[in-house]
């Protein structure tokens, strides 16, 4: 990895996504997603998730990386539109860290 940390890349991208919310531009893909709203973004997330699954099935690393990036990107757009941040997700992952996945899921079902 280059000199940027994973978190810095997410933060930098998220700053751009947040900026598009307050300063929409007519030729911006992100602006068009925001204008179309959650339903359209959800459709894109489902589409990208399916493409990611297909890439995994085909075991093509370049395709897996590309599709994972698309899936993460559209998820970040959804977070921004819904006034959430990558830090909200990272904090949740940190909260779960070191716990059994079975135990963690059971704690949510109560």
List the helices and strands and how they pair.
Elements: H1 6-22, H2 29-58, H3 61-81, H4 86-96, H5 101-108
Helix pairs in contact: 1-3, 2-3
Give a description of the structure.
With 110 residues, the chain is an all-alpha fold. It has one domain: Helix Hairpins (Orthogonal Bundle). 79% of the residues lie in helices and 0% in strands. The chain has five helices and no strands. Helix 1 (6-22) packs across helix 3 and helix 2 runs antiparallel to helix 3. The chain is globular and about 45 Å long. The N and C termini lie far apart (41 Å). The mean pLDDT is 90.
Structural class: mainly alpha
**Total DSSP helices:** 5
Spans of 5+ residues with little confidence (pLDDT < 50)?
A: none
CATH superfamily: MazG-like
Number of strands: 0
Can you give the helix content as a percent range? over 70%
The backbone outline, from C-alpha atoms, is globular
Largest sheet: none
> Mean pLDDT, as a whole number?
90
Give the termini distance in whole angstroms. 41 Å
Please identify the top-level CATH class. Answer: Mainly Alpha
Which architecture does the CATH hierarchy give at level 2? Answer: Orthogonal Bundle
Radius of gyration: 16 Å
Tally of individual domains:
1
CATH topology: Helix Hairpins
Percent strand: under 5%
Helix and strand element order: HHHHH
Structure, briefly:
With 110 residues, the protein is mainly alpha-helical.
């Amino acid at each position: 990895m280059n000199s940027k940390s994973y978190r810095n890349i997410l933060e930098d991208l998220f700053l751009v996504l947040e900026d598009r919310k307050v300063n929409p531009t007519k030729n911006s893909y992100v602006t068009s997603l925001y204008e179309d709203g959650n339903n359209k973004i959800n459709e894109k997330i489902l589409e990208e998730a399916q493409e990611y699954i297909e890439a995994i099935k085909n075991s093509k690393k370049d395709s897996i990386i590309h599709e994972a990036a698309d899936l993460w990107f559209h998820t970040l757009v959804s977070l921004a539109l819904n006034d959430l941040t990558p830090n909200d997700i990272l904090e949740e992952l940190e909260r779960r860290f070191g716990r059994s996945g079975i135990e963690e899921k059971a704690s949510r079902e109560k």
